[in-house]
Specification:
By secondary structure, the protein is of the alpha/beta class. It has a single domain, classed as Cupredoxins -  blue copper proteins (Immunoglobulin-like), CATH 2.60.40. It has a 4-stranded mixed beta sheet, with no helix packed on it. The protein has a 4-stranded mixed beta sheet with strand order 3-8-7-5, with no helix packed on it. Strand 7 and strand 8 form a beta hairpin. It is elongated.
């Protein structure tokens, strides 16, 4: 019996691990690219008015004279006038937690008329920052004309007003 020589086998890659690694890297790069492309656009809000929520050394006492806490704009005013579509940012620079809460009918019924001496027109939207720790901010965009009274429901003697004009 004669033995025939076997035909030479096709050469196999010496290291399939390199091939698998390349495939995995390509899949990861494609996955990350798809993830980045499907992210929602970053929120870009232009702040039109900044209001500081302040207190002195973490104190906010109702009977303090002069007041030791409150709301104020860059000029020290409690009341501000802005154009419709303007975003207002409140920043808590004090040591106490504070809120920015509209004086709408729902909040007036919850916190009373001493917290909100003026009730906002029912056509105006309500807003509420919730409790804001020291250093935190709250933004709200005013898209409806009118006069918005607001207060801090933690310190119900703190009041401010935003007047929105066309």
């Amino acid at each position: 019996m004669e033995q025939t020589a076997k035909p030479p086998e096709a050469q196999k890659p010496k290291n399939r691990t390199i091939l698998y690694a390349i495939i995995i890297v390509v899949l990861i790069v494609v996955g990350v690219g798809v993830y980045i492309l499907t992210l929602p656009p970053a929120k870009t809000t232009t702040i039109g008015e900044r209001i500081t929520i302040w207190d002195t050394s973490g104190a906010c006492i109702q009977t303090a004279s002069p007041p030791d806490c409150g709301f104020k704009d860059a000029n020290g005013n409690v009341n501000v006038t802005i154009a419709k579509g303007t975003t207002v940012e409140w920043k808590n620079t004090g040591g106490q937690a504070h809120t920015v809460t509209s004086c709408d009918a729902g909040h007036v019924s919850t916190y009373g008329t001493s917290a909100c001496p003026t009730t906002n027109n029912s056509a105006l939207p309500s807003f509420d920052s919730g409790s804001m720790a020291a250093g935190s901010t709250y933004d709200y965009t005013f898209n409806t004309n009118g006069t918005y009274a607001y207060m801090c429901y933690i310190h119900i003697w703190m009041h401010g007003t935003v007047v929105v004009t066309p």
